[in-house]
Design brief:
homodimer, 240 residues, alpha+beta, Glutaredoxin, Glutathione S-transferase Yfyf (Class Pi), Chain A, domain 2, 2 domains, 4-stranded mixed β-sheet, 9 helices, 55% helix, 9% strand, globular
């Protein structure tokens, strides 16, 4: 077989779905190149980028269909395409309909219940102010903070239903739903004071540790940007 | 082949994802029974219902895996399982990876960009007050109203990228992404005054008409509850 051509990932590593893709390509050994596209500099709003994604959202992947390159947005959709690569272990997106259904549902819960609160809250507390981007009014931020706290409860319920030592979709090994949700919660680490204000429960932290453990050293390397974001936030007195 | 056993759908037809499932089962001829579960009466919060979905969210489907029945939550995940039924026309969730990727991405945009604004706004304006359920503060509702308006713009961009006469994922026939997004926008019809305040663009309305057209009479029959909701809202003086 000819060498596989690399997938191109347009990513801002400060952003959760971008990190999920880059960590996944590295951990699964998918040939890829990362084109850093900075949200704070508006690099996702250029005419060139809008040709890849008219909605001007990151991340975007350029994938191969035979000789033809095509662009796909939305991290969940991209992860599913990456799982078609033969080198990706099957546990990330199992083919059995019943297990796949559970993974799809957990990915949907990520979008409808977990991401909403965490992403708006962390953005308003730190990423927005650092990038000099407009943030929602305080009432809106507080309301999303409440959603983020409920997300920890949702995760508790999902892990309890999955069973002892299992991942969110009930599997014995992690899936793309675990990766996506763990990267979402990881962004809270960039917010000074979140350890007190917005701390996942011990069960959720144990699950995160299990997910991270299987993705090292890529998890820490790709996530190191959050340490820098946190330091910059501390320097500006930004807090939870 | 033995007669297929019916899928059981737990649904509140006032809720968009519930309607999407029921319309789909009817239109695709999937044997099913609907168990009406009323959110306003807290019927999704009973211990029995939490055995089906620990997160206490509607809809839930009970599907068959051979002789064994299993429960799955989240409408997108359920729709994908229903598309495995051999009687469902392939256009609803095409198997070609590239087209399936585009459908998955459009479903993700439904969750991350379109549903968020529309669902919170319509709930706060009408469904919440009618059900005597707590609604978010005004600033939060207004912010989500802004998101709902941006969703129309997102839909314009997606339809423009899809091409003349095409559906959101670029296909010539509708997919489960069209169904899900159309049911989401449909709920705005329950809000008196939304015709002025929160009106999709002509292009989006034309696309909705195309989606609905292929789903009649099921679309109108399942959606008739929204006419009653609107009348009840008008009687109570609720408005956009």
């Amino acid at each position: 077989m000819a060498a596989r051509r690399p997938v191109t990932i347009y990513a801002d590593l400060v952003s959760q779905p971008s990190r999920a893709l880059v960590v996944f390509c590295r951990a699964a050994g998918i040939p890829h190149e990362v084109k850093i596209t900075r949200i704070a500099r508006g690099e996702h709003r250029t005419p060139e980028f809008r040709k890849l994604n008219p909605l001007a959202q990151l991340p975007v992947a350029q994938l191969w269909d035979g000789e033809e390159q095509w662009a796909l947005a939305e991290s969940h959709a991209i992860l599913k395409q990456l799982c078609l690569h033969p080198e990706v272990p099957e546990h990330w997106y199992p083919e059995s309909p019943r297990v796949r259904g559970a993974v799809d549902a957990a990915l949907d819960v990520h979008h409808t219940r977990i991401r909403r609160g965490c992403a708006v809250w962390a953005f308003a507390k730190v990423m927005g102010p650092l990038g000099k981007l407009p943030v929602p009014p305080k009432e809106v931020v507080d309301w999303h903070g409440g959603m983020a706290r409920r997300a920890f409860k949702d995760m508790e319920l999902m892990l309890e239903a999955a069973g002892e030592g299992r991942f969110v979709a009930g599997t014995a090994e992690p899936t793309i739903a675990d990766l996506s949700i763990a990267c979402e919660l990881q962004q809270l680490e960039a917010v000074p004071g979140a350890d007190d204000e917005m701390r996942p429960t011990p069960r959720v932290l144990q699950w995160m540790s299990d997910v991270k453990g299987g993705l090292q050293p890529h998890w820490d390397e790709v996530g190191s940007v959050l340490t820098k974001v946190r330091a910059a936030a501390e320097a500006q007195g930004l807090r939870a």
